[in-house]
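User: Please check token order:
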Amino acid sequence: MKELKEQQLNDVQCSGLCCTKVKNFNVNFGNTKVLENVNLHIHCGELTAIIGPNGGGKSTLLKAMLGDVKHTGQLEYLDGKNKDSGVPVIGYVPQNLSFDSGTPTSVLDLFMVCNSKIPAWLLTTKGIKNKVRESLAMVKAEHLINRRIGALSGGELQRVLLALALDPIPDLLLLDEPVSGIDQNGLEVFYDTVSELRKKYDLSIILVSHDLDLVEKYADRVVLINGTVLCSGTPQEVFNNQITSKIFGMTWFKQRANDHDNNRGEADA
């Protein structure tokens, strides 16, 4: 009876996409192996961080999942009953957006072009503006609706791109180093926002990141990739693994240990 109740609860929580399985992914660029035998299991409601050295294939993995990079292997999307859930809605935030900083294009224009394919200067109704404001409000950026995209800070632009990726609400959200070049305050705001969205919408999120401190704080699972999966598990398991310390060197790990010791000392005081 207890097992039945737990299964019923899981069915309610995972009414749509419950998990994403990456099976035996391989990517070759010519004769160079970029990814080999990559296997991942991503659960709904969890933030899975992908870490690793530059050139390790992290961004390539996301592009392969999107179908933008030729690969071999399989993607499976399962519902709460472990059945094929069909093709999910996938949101994607790239590392950066290339554009002319002098463009007069506003945030509203960007939403219009990306979502309705109709330029805002040809047709902008009150209903459309309200819908865009609602999307921006999800990432605490509704005040940016009329701002030129060239006038946005790095953190503001990434929140706008995140809002675009959430319209409509996806089953799976892919974030490819979305806070590269953003200051510390912007980093915290972005990670806090993503964490709130994960909980509110039970999102499956895959985040490529070099921000190890924030990964340790926010991620549910961490996967270390360098051409293949070297280790995976909870942040504590991965960051305490000798393989991880060899990849990133000892400086960060010594600082991490010192910070943990200081935090324990403050708690005991």
Notes: Residues 1-15 have pLDDT under 50 and may be disordered. The chain has ten helices and nine strands. The first strand starts at residue 19 and ends at 29. The CA atoms of residues 20 and 77 lie 5 Å apart.
